[in-house]
């Protein structure tokens, strides 16, 4: 996904980018492990949407949406499900920032649908600059929740 193609404004120059090392990469992009995480400015809001940009392949980037309370719309990721998904990382759920990977699809009429992957959120541990895409085991979490 390319921000320019999606017509999303540039990043906020007042907020610093963060380096992210992803030992396993993003699902489907496992060979790419080094990224930057930068907040996007949409209108007057900052901090809700982020760009995860590969530094190894400039054509590879993802739009992320911050999920501070593990809730989006009517869907809440349970604390137990989230803790189980990150247990193998050896970090406390309270020590990570959680984001959803956003997809934008355009139909034949040119109408866009924006969805969030709730089943496989991205977690970032700022103390180690490490990030992971984790998969929640319960199928009740949708892979394409319209937002």
Automatic annotation (TrEMBL):
<dbReference type="GO" id="GO:0044780">
    <property type="term" value="P:bacterial-type flagellum assembly"/>
</dbReference>
<dbReference type="InterPro" id="IPR024046">
    <property type="entry name" value="Flagellar_assmbl_FliW_dom_sf"/>
</dbReference>
<dbReference type="InterPro" id="IPR003775">
    <property type="entry name" value="Flagellar_assembly_factor_FliW"/>
</dbReference>
<dbReference type="Pfam" id="PF02623">
    <property type="entry name" value="FliW"/>
</dbReference>
<protein>
    <recommendedName>
        <fullName>Flagellar assembly factor FliW</fullName>
    </recommendedName>
</protein>
